[in-house]
Amino acid sequence: MSNRIITLDVIRGVAVMGIFSVNVVAFAMVEAAYFNPPVYGFDGLADRLMWLANFILVDGKMRSLFSILFGASMLLVADRADASGQSATGVHYRRMAVLLLFGLAHFYFIWFGDILTTYAVVGSVVFLFRRFNVAALAAFAVVAYILAFANAASQASAFAARIAVALASGDPDAIGYYGPSAASIARDLAVHSSWPAYVATMIGERLWNPLDIVRALFMETFALMLIGMAAYRSGFLNGQWPAAAYRRIAIVGIALGAAFSAVLAAWVWADGFRLPLTVNALETWSMPAHPVMALAYAAALVLAVRKGGWLIDRLAAVGRAAFTNYLGTSIVAMLVFNGSGLGLYGQLSRAECWLLVPLVWLLMLLWSKPWLDRFTYGPLEWAWRSLSRLRPQPMLKRA
């Protein structure tokens, strides 16, 4: 661990755990329910409270934190390549090429919500900015995020207009993806009735969907990775700032971001979770809170790292094996929900499916540290590194 930055590991570990807290809904029930809760499994008060907690504290914030850490990690890998006399450019683009293959395999064979493909594509572009100083990186990040929000706001306005037309028509099927008909829901359930059915649908009907995901998330992810690069270069993510600065950022950022998200959630709740507000609140209007709370969480975790303890050591191990843990959660969820596993897809409510989350968190905390006490890398980290370097990397730690 001497050559690692433990703050990065801990923040990454918390981020990958937090992401599963919201992703479990997309694993467990029809796709539209992630964006429009009333579509499926949203009948009880517990379901609404679970949505509320995730919306205010987790949704969008942890993905932003994960994206920020990805940008920081790119610079860390590049710096170490330079220091060892390797070509940082060559190392980076081989890593992105292998990550792209992992991401596509993840999408086509395990889960439609893959983020790795987007990271590989965006990371290939963001790397071109690695020589910029902190001020330039931050400036480009702010401009890019404003552009991402403006584009999302434009799409939200267009979506609201389409929903108004659909509702006026009196035809519920006219709403489309975000308000699927009974027939659409039945098709969705059939897709997840078995692993062969899922793969056939992804490779057949949804072959080009990864490009759609990249296009939808490109600018936002680009901005977040730039934020990560600036935060790494400035020493913020490395734990080099004064404790008072971290406390101020943590308190103010979490308070403002949570308050903003809570007001938005209250608006959606009071409106009866109707379209288009519900979808637009999740996908667009909540965006300003995401990087604010992500950086505030990072600041709080830096302070926690300084105090240390067994939990910090466990979280650091989860972060060191974040690639394995991210893909591992997808495999666990597939085995639980897909028809070729336990077949619970579409059988649980939002609150019920969330009960899997603490079990998966516990699994991450239990396996990561003992494995990394013995081995140099997590299993998939080893595969990614070995494929990127075109030769097997040493796995067992030396005594």
Automatic annotation (TrEMBL):
Keywords: Membrane, Transmembrane, Transmembrane helix. This is DUF418 domain-containing protein. It comes from Sphingomonas sabuli. InterPro entries: Bact_Transport_Assoc, DUF418. It comes from the Bacteria. Residues 231-389 form the DUF418 domain. The chain crosses the membrane at residues 12-35, 55-77, 98-122, 134-153, 249-269, 289-305, 317-337, 349-367.
